[in-house]
Every structure is written in C-alpha cells, then in structure tokens.
Amino acid sequence: MSNLVNDGLDCTIRLGELADASYIACRLANVAMQTCASPNYLALHGMPETLADLAQHHVVHYVSGQQGKIMPWKFLGQSEEVEQFKNTHATQVNDSNALLFTALSGLGIVQMPDLLLRPYLARGELVPILTEVQTPTRPLWIIYPQRQFIPKRLAVFIEWLMALEWNE
C-alpha cells in the first residue's frame, strides 16, 4: 500500500475492501480467488480433500504490508456464509510475487487471484485444490488522488482498464 501523493504516483490497483476514503476509487471487477499448490508439493504432502485438511498442510499467507495482519483465506460454506481460514504458524509474505514464488517452489499452498494464476495453472505448474468449495470474489479497484484535473495519460489508462474483460 502506498501513499499516492507522497510517492508521486498517478494511480494504484488494489484488491480487496478499501479502508482509505480520501482517494477516488473505481471498481474494475470482482476477481475470483483460487487455492492451489505445485505438483511437487502435492506429491510430497498429499491433496487436501476438505477445509479441515488445510490445518495439516504448509500454507503461505499474504500479510498486509500497511496493516501487518494476515489476510485470511475465504471460502463459501454450505449456507453461503463466508468461512475464514488462517493458520498463524504459516509462512507469511507481504508481496504477491513472493506469494506466487512460494507456491511455484513447492513451499506450500496459497490462495491468490485467479487472473494471476491462470498461466501457471494452464501449464500445470500449479494445481487447483479444494475446487468443490467456492471462494467469494474480491473487488479490484483503480485508485487515484482526488484532483480537479486528471492528467490525460491517467484518464486514458483508466478508460483502458475499465474496458478490459477481467474475468475471461
């Protein structure tokens, strides 16, 4: 998470619920989440069959850099209620690239946005797990400082992002 004005950024893209209302935020999409692991990890540790099985596995959680808290995995239960999974003894990272790398390296199970995982799933470098359990989507936002004048380059970029088909 960055301070757009202090860091000299025109905009940022964020996933999840927003806490800071001092910026303009436009929802780009609702992004599906995917729980997965590498084939090597699954060969060594087995395939979890239920949510309860996750407690016996190595998991890697994303930690919010600004808030310093573990972002729990979310699943939809039988009654459409959101169930959360958080293992405090898990490996923790605060960077999405590091989260992806831990999964590809066979260090554990991760939950990440499907749109980031698609090429690795298609090549068989990662395997989806617990596919019978749905995960709620998370909102994807473009955020920019509130200004009277939006630079043309930013306006064009926002327009381009809004036109993308995020959930193909």
Automatic annotation (TrEMBL):
One of its GO terms (biological process) is DNA-templated transcription. Gene3D superfamilies: 3.40.190.290. This is LysR substrate-binding domain-containing protein. It comes from Actinobacillus ureae ATCC 25976. It comes from the Bacteria. Residues 3-162 form the LysR substrate-binding domain. Belongs to the LysR transcriptional regulatory family. The lineage of its organism: Bacteria, Pseudomonadati, Pseudomonadota, Gammaproteobacteria, Pasteurellales. InterPro entries: LysR-type_TF_proteobact-type (IPR058163), LysR_subst-bd (IPR005119). Pfam families: LysR_substrate (PF03466). GO terms for molecular function: DNA-binding transcription factor activity; sequence-specific DNA binding. PANTHER family: HTH-TYPE TRANSCRIPTIONAL REGULATOR (PTHR30537), LYSR FAMILY TRANSCRIPTIONAL REGULATOR (PTHR30537:SF72). Signal peptide: none annotated.
